[in-house]
Amino acid sequence: MKIHVVDEKGVRHALEALPGWRVMEIIRDWGLPIKAECGGACACATCHVYVEPEWQEKVAPPHDEEVDRLDEAFAVEENSRLSCQILMSEELDGLTLRLAPNFD
Question: Model's pTM, two decimal places?
Fold first, then answer.
């Protein structure tokens, strides 16, 4: 399985993915620039990504806690998600997303 991640410079990366892993873990473990400060506990918004439109319906909808965290994020768009809350599965093979801007 793979996910496709477009970084802030517009470079597209095809990353090997395992089922059951959080998308945030996959991005982080492949060395792409994602902070993920809380380690996947949905306690921050530093793993903010944009899910490409053709994948939005395939990704499970956000729960209330994720929506609350996104309220704290910068540059939120309609397709914003926290990558720690997206679990990789066979149905998401080929998932394409963009990293949100990193405001340090």
Answer: 0.94
